[in-house]
Design brief:
alpha+beta
């Protein structure tokens, strides 16, 4: 009988405040969609870091005869065979830092350039002798770039030492900033949702003040009086959480697998899988129930004084 009463009161409360209930559902859905999206973005950045940092190389570019005319680092002329041998010997001795060393000749560099930038207007004017020889070093720890840079920068025959990790750091910094922006918007939407929940519960409690007054007079417990209002907020939040889950699933499906099909267009990016999405759904649903319930509970403690 009590369960039937609580359920009937939930239906009455939702119908009486239909507009505000709809606003609560939409704001909860939007805020939790952003929350889930931020969690997935964080997972995506971590996945990309693990994937790309494992593949980054440090490149030691050697001087050619054209650099000798235009680059101050190559003022002593193009790299000699003895200098190349000395650089390679020194790299092979750095076993605590260096995992693998590979050599790229001018012809190989030219071939790779043509493969990547063959449509560029500049590609037709380049010749193999204008390309730079280089040593590509895979580090055991990508953070140890400075060890290589300090050892070889400024050495005779070395034009420059470049770390691919620096380029990736800029990308990941941008992604992290975007993620923080999404979290900021999510926090704002969450505050809006909480305020709507509190106002909706208070309006519902005010419209039923006679019923709650009678219940207090006949000795009903505080929880028994509060239960329908808390349940109303929880149901509205659960609906919003369900919509947020649908938005995440649909968003992942159409942006990565189909529709935009980013997984096919950007094959160099290792996108998060469905397992990452599915593990976030229970958290979103739990949050969608707990958050409105707590907001309603604390709002009613003061308003109903029970």
């Amino acid at each position: 009988m009590r369960a039937q009463f609580v359920l009937s009161e939930i239906g009455v409360g939702l119908r009486r405040n239909l507009t505000m209930t709809f606003a609560v559902i939409v704001s909860v859905a939007l805020s939790l969609s952003l929350f889930g999206g931020s969690l997935l973005m964080s997972d995506q950045v971590s996945t990309m870091k693990g994937y790309w940092y494992d593949k980054v190389n440090v490149s030691i570019f050697l001087c050619n005869k054209h650099d000798a005319e235009s680059d101050v680092n190559c003022a002593k002329g193009a790299v000699t065979a003895d200098q190349k041998k000395q650089i390679l010997d020194d790299l092979n001795k750095m076993t605590s830092v260096v995992e693998k060393v590979s050599y790229e000749s001018q012809d190989q560099a030219y071939k790779h350039y043509k493969e990547q930038f063959g449509n560029s207007p500049l590609a037709g004017s380049l010749t193999p002798d204008q390309m730079q020889e280089s040593y590509r070093i895979k580090l055991k720890d990508p953070q140890k770039y400075q060890v290589i840079a300090s050892a070889f920068n400024g050495r005779a025959g070395v034009q420059s030492v470049q770390d691919q990790k620096g380029i990736l750091d800029n990308l990941f910094t941008l992604l992290n900033l975007m993620n923080r922006g999404a979290l900021g918007v999510m926090a704002l939407m969450l505050v809006v949702a909480l305020l709507l929940i509190v106002n909706t519960v208070r309006v519902s409690a005010f419209s039923r003040r006679r019923e709650t007054g009678i219940m207090r007079l006949v000795g009903a417990s505080g929880f028994y009086i509060q239960a329908p209002f808390i349940a109303e907020a929880a149901v509205a939040g659960l609906i919003g959480g369900g919509l947020a889950c649908v938005a995440l699933v649909v968003g992942r499906y159409f942006t990565i697998d189909h529709g935009m099909a980013l997984s096919h267009k950007l094959q160099l990016i290792n996108f998060v899988g469905w397992d990452a999405v599915l593990t976030k759904l229970p958290l979103i649903l739990a949050t969608s129930v707990v958050m409105p319930s707590l907001a309603a509970f604390f709002a009613l403690r003061k308003y109903l004084k029970v």
